[in-house]
Each structure stands twice: as C-alpha cells, then as structure tokens.
Amino acid sequence: MLPSAALSGTGRKLEYPELLDATTSRRFQLKAQSGATRFRGSSATETIGYNQGYLGPTIRLLTDAETLAEVQNTLDEPVSSHWHGLLVPGPFDGGPHQAIAPGRSWDPVLNLDQPPATAWYHSHVHGSTARQVMFGLAGVLHVTDGEDDERGLPSTYAVDDLTLVLQDRQFNWRGRMTYDVGMHQSMNGFRGDTMLVNGQAGASAAVPKGVVRCRLVNGSNARIYRLSLADDRPLHLVATDGGFLDRPVALTRMVLAPGERVEVLIDFTDGRDSVLVSDDIANSAMGGMMGSGSGGRFTVLHFAVDTTLPVRIDTLPDAMDGPLPDLSSNNIPVRRLTLDMSMGMGMMMSRSGNQFSINGAPYDQNALNFSTKLNSTERWIVRGDMMMHPFHIHGVRFQVLSDNGRQPRAENRGWKDTVLVAGEVELAITFEKPAPSSAPYMYHCHILEHEDGGMMGQFSVS
C-alpha cells in the first residue's frame, strides 16, 4: 500500500536531476545506459537511464532558438527519445519511427518557437515503452525565454524552482523494483505500492521561507493523482502542459494524469512545513470510472522549510502571459475518436481482435490513420471506453473546449497536449509543424500498457 499522509519527513533530503543548460551552447548530449539503483533496502535494481543509472538530466532549452541534440544508445535494445510537449517536426519527434538501434546515435535539430513550458522526454519504442519508462528512460525539459524574473517567478534550479517527477513503483521484499504485468495490470495499467519523487522514496524537499515554484510531471505508467496540500493551503496554478496561464489560479486540489505537467506556486512565507498528498483515484476496467478518491489518501512529498536558503520571491504574481486565442469556432473540421478496450469474450473487440485500439483499429506502424493540413485547426471529439484514459497528441498543442459537455477544469484551461478523458472531451487543435507520412505524429492513451497494447494511431501534417 502507498503510505498514508503524514506531517513528518524522513530527514532524507530530496535530490534533483543534474541540470543541462543548453541555452547558451545550443547543444546537449544524452546517452541511454544501464545502471544499478538502490531505491530501498540493501538490494540494487538493474535500471536504465539517460546519462545516469535511473531517469535523466533536466535539460533547459531556449525558445526561439535552434538546439542540436545527440542521443546515443549504449543498451542492447532499441530506444528512442520522444520530446513530449515540444512542437517540432515529425522527423525530430522521437516517436516509434525514430528508434535508435543498439550502438547507434540520433542527432535531431530542435528548432523551438513555442511558449515557455515544462515538457519531458522518454523512450517511445512501440511494445517496449511501458517497461523502458518503468526502469528509468525519462527526464524533464524546461523551455524558457529567460523572462521569469519579469514575471515574478522563482527560477533558481533546485532551490525555489523545483523539478518533481512523480512515479509509483513496485518493490519486492529485497527492495528490488519489479514489473510483472498480468491481465489485471495490462487492462488497468500498472499501479505500484511505493511513491517515488525524482527516483527517491521517502525524501523531503527543502524549501526557502518564500514562494516556491513546483514543476510537477506525472511520469507514472497509469496512476492518476488528485493532488492537494495536507494543511489546505492553496496550490497556485500558473502553467499547464503547453505554457503559462494568463494569471495564477488558486486551487485546493488538482488532477494530474500520466503525461500531464503543471507548474504551481506554493507560499511558504509563514515558515510552516507542508505535505503534498494525493487521493487514491480508482480507475479500473473492471469497476468502471470512479472519480472520487475512494482508496484513501497517501503522501507524495514532504516540504520542509529551511531558513538558511535564500528567498528571492516572497509575493505571488498578479498576471502571467495574457489570454489564450479563441479556437472555439464551429466552422472547423470535426474528427471523432473512441478509445476502445476489450475484456475478452462478450466484450468490445477491435476489428483485429486486439485488446486496445482507437476507432476499432489497433496501432500499425505501417498504416497512416489520416492526414491533415499544416497551419489548420480541427475540432476533435474524443470518447473513452470503460475507464479514464489520458490522451496525448504529438507535435501539437490544443485547447479543451468542453469536458462531458461542461466547462473544463482549471487544470485544462491553458494550452495542453495531454488530457484526461473521463467520458468525452472536445478539443480544438492547431497543427503548426509538418510531419510527413514517413515520420508521422502519434496520438494515444498515455496509460503506457494501453499504448503498447495498441491504443495508438498516427497522422501526417503537410
């Protein structure tokens, strides 16, 4: 079981990934490599990561600039590096079509002209994504324009600007990470019994006696978090997947599904510690969709105020980056997608008999599902089957127009690339980058076991 919420930390200080700042050099290197990581107990787990044994560095990229990347594969299996949240052309996206063979490297050019945002990168080899991400092939990207001081935002890495990768993992009695996927885990997605933040269990984040910025990345395979602070202080939402909101929004709780990112400000000027907690949201193919936290509450991360840390920001900003453009026009093409599941005899089946599919068709890397026009806008109506599905689209950003016919939650009112489908959502999508049929964009459920099982499609943009 995941630990219950508590107000006392363990004394172990949370560590942060190494920062690779490419804003000046305009280049960086990643190496997919093996490692041995001791998460808990005395036994180490054979893991994989980028530039280290588990997970990867945080990469800082400059928007309105061209950055050269080099991704090397020293493992004995194909890997990739999908830039989840970057608006780059299809050949540089890092999806299944850009798999890197053992001993080879890939040199994409990341020419960014998108707003500042928190994105992430992870391996995306079809059929292996869930296992490779589980054992460590993932990291975080900061896209910046260098103007956070003007916005009044905390920006000192690992001091008042905290990168927090949330993952749940399973460990055996020896303390080794395990990933045994049977029918239940395949259908519902993997959910572990131990909470990790930045690959660490039971650590506490030291924070200054001021305003702290937390970049929260849901890197779990399937777990959906409903986050809040145990002392009921607000989480001030300032950014979603694709960038800043027009102003901070104070929330008592927020939902974060696999693949989603948010940036929140937390005010520690009163000098009091706090605990980030989550309700345990049930999301079962056997039990249907359950929106309540019926499974209890567990600790995600303890925050401990350290008065020796410098305080840069002690007030919340009033405004951010201005309103979003209005994409709600009815005079745009409409596309309908259903995220389909099969439970065996008597249940819905795809045309090929696969367990997972979209519009009845499981993923086929050699088949293009549709094409769309560059610089066009479409309205997608996406419906989930039997349970909640985080739905991600590569190479685009979108606005959530409605969620089951209602106004979207605050977490879904900014630019997005991943959205939790709990019934039906309506999206307005802009196609700003090209993707040829030889290197198309993906759209898929971000429950990684569903994605590997076929709940994915691909499209070109020209």
From TrEMBL:
PROSITE patterns: MULTICOPPER_OXIDASE2. The keyword 4Fe-4S does not apply. Residues 33-146, 192-270, 353-461 form the Plastocyanin-like domain. GO terms for molecular function: copper ion binding; oxidoreductase activity. InterPro entries: Cu-oxidase-like_N, Cu-oxidase_2nd, Cu-oxidase_C, Cu-oxidase_fam, Cu_oxidase_Cu_BS, Cupredoxin. Keywords: Metal-binding, Oxidoreductase. This is Blue copper oxidase CueO. The lineage of its organism: Bacteria, Pseudomonadati, Pseudomonadota, Alphaproteobacteria, Rhodobacterales.
